[in-house]
Please model this.
Amino acid sequence: MPAAATVASQRVDAERVLGFRLVRSGLAGRDARTLPEAAACPASDFSRNAALFALAARHRGVTRKRYEEATDGGELVVAHIVRGAIHVLAPDDLALYGRALLSNKDDELVVQLGRQIQRLAAEKRFSPTDALDEVAEATEGALGGGRALSKNELHDELRGRVGADLMPWCKGCKSHHVAPMLWRYGGVKAGARLDARRRYVLGKPGRSPAAAGAVRRFLRFYGPGDAGDFADWAGVARPHAKRLWEQMEGDLAEVSVGRRQLWALSEDLADLESPPDAEGVRFIPPGDPYLQKPNRPLLAPEAELRKRLFRPVASPGVVLANGRLAGLWRVKAKGKKTEITVEKLARLACGDIEEEAHRVADLRGGSGVLLVVD
Model:
């Protein structure tokens, strides 16, 4: 228990934890006032249109045109951040979730960069921090002068700027290029982002804030938790996560959730004890902030359901009804129309499903919707 904690431990059940996280992720009501507010908890853009759908579940004014204008104009940022994955986030948070979380210790950074870099560093005897600096400098050079490059164009540029030891053979591409996690985190350090055409450009992340601020944000969205939960979410090494966590100990209070002893921000205990009720139906996409690892065992306690929900590839989206898991949904093109299949896991109002289905179809740019309910 943190020595500075002064609030007594309290017990919170899973339902209240999920309610708290639902509210903090912006899904209790579609009432975010701005796009950056809707992106306050970074939304994964791993699968096609995922971030667009995630923002539309939180803000009534989202359209594809509006989203793309905000991305190009800097109102939103699309970038590799936590875990090296592409997310959409508020522009003021790019440095916090990006540069600030890069460890300056080789033994921590190499874990953050992944197993391929661990093997390469041992084989080629290079320093992970030196390697990251080299790729970041090369990325800045490649994108300098306001250039906008596709991923393949960026790889071509890096081939002429980065040493051979950092460019293993890629079976998928049938070429040598900078190792995936290294070029992604090189872009993080360089402050790169993506425009609406998915081209890499240099962003304006500003000075890096104190990295412990990311722990506070994590607990604001996913509390209660512990340092291990934060490490998994942020994609940092456990010692790095523990060090950042310890900087926050004076602001934490102990909370019991089932058999786990976890921590929440002391200022959040009242909201955690009695979160407001959620209203309405939401179609949220795979990779939505609410579907990230901290929530999965609480949202779907049965292992078999979790396997169906959270697949390595091609996961379905989730239908929430008044904040509760009520179904799964998948989408595909059917000619010029959009076909949406909903598998009900609980009672759902047909009108609300139709409204959400039309919202998704409009965001995809389809000329109509075919709704199939199982």
About this structure: The radius of gyration is 21 Å. The chain has 17 helices and 15 strands.
